[in-house]
């Protein structure tokens, strides 16, 4: 079950390489396409590693909306086309590595907690997971690494506006800020096209910051 959840998540991510083809981030499909469309990046063909701008990608990776596409590939549908989602893009100018600090985000909290409810230890799937404030906001809690945990909707509802102690719902560990070297639990599934760039132990991939990489 865990692998399926992670696979679904990774299908929504694009690996980002800097100008020298070093993996530096992952980003969303929307932002990945935006970087390519604005000529900040090129799409890497997973078959032969050729580079494509947006128009060239449409020429080799777009089909009519009525066409049948492979089930093992991720396609974006528009009103008239189906466009194969890139798995890897390379930035045209940026040649550095972002600050080695994990972005605080819902996705990274899910990764840190291994897509698992921290109260009941179940993995019910992303649709049934939420973020719980250990110390509720109404009680002075903050939205931060050390006060947010993954919780299934059922446990989150049960806990309500109480602390874990008050709700008698013990946490197996205190929430924490992971370091870059801790990495984030990407799970067992990594797209084959990432294999050239991301090894089994090199999984400290960050979400692409909203600013700072593209001048």
Structural topology:
Elements (H helix, E strand, L loop, with lengths): L1 H9 L2 E5 L5 E6 H9 L3 E4 L6 E2 L1 H8 E3 L10 E3 L3 E4 L3 E4 L14 H7 L16 E5 L14 E5 H7 L4 H4 L48
Parallel strand pairs: 1-8
Antiparallel strand pairs: 1-2, 3-4, 3-8, 5-7, 6-7, 9-10
Could you characterize what this model shows?
With 215 residues, the chain is α+β, with helices and mostly antiparallel strands. The chain folds into two domains: 2-100 and 183-194, no CATH class; 106-167, Orthogonal Bundle (DNA Binding (I), subunit A). It is 20% helix and 19% strand. The protein has six helices and ten strands. The chain has helices at residues 2-10, 29-37, 54-61, 106-112, 153-159, 164-167; strands spanning 13-17, 23-28, 41-44, 51-52, 62-64, 75-77, 81-84, 88-91, 129-133, 148-152. The strands form three sheets. It has a five-stranded mixed beta sheet. The chain has a three-stranded antiparallel beta sheet with strand order 5-7-6. Strands 9-10 form a two-stranded antiparallel ribbon. Strand 1 (13-17) and strand 2 (23-28) form a beta hairpin. The radius of gyration is 19 Å and the shape is elongated. The model is unreliable at 1-9, 184-188 and 200-215 (pLDDT under 50).
Question: Could you provide a short overview of the structure?
Answer:
The protein is built from 6 helices and 10 strands.
């Amino acid at each position: 079950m865990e692998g399926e959840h992670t696979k679904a998540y990774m299908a929504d991510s694009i690996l980002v390489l800097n100008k020298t083809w070093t993996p530096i981030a992952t980003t969303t499909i929307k932002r990945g396409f935006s970087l390519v469309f604005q000529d900040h990046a090129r799409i890497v063909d997973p078959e032969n590693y050729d580079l494509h701008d947006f128009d060239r990608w449409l020429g080799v990776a777009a089909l009519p909306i009525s066409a049948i596409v492979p089930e093992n590939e991720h396609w974006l549908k528009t009103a008239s086309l189906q466009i194969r989602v890139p798995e890897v893009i390379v930035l045209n100018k940026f040649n550095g590595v972002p600050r080695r600090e994990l972005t605080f985000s819902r996705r990274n909290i899910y990764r840190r907690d291994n897509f698992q409810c921290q109260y009941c230890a179940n993995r019910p799937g992303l649709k049934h997971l939420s973020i719980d404030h250990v110390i509720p906001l109404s009680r002075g809690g903050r939205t931060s690494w050390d006060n947010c945990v993954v919780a299934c909707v059922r446990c989150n509802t049960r806990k309500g506006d109480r602390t874990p102690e008050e709700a008698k719902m013990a946490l197996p560990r205190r929430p924490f800020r992971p370091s870059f070297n801790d990495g984030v639990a990407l799970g067992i599934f990594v797209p084959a096209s990432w294999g050239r760039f991301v090894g089994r132990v090199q999984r400290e991939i960050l979400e692409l910051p909203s600013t700072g990489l593209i001048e």
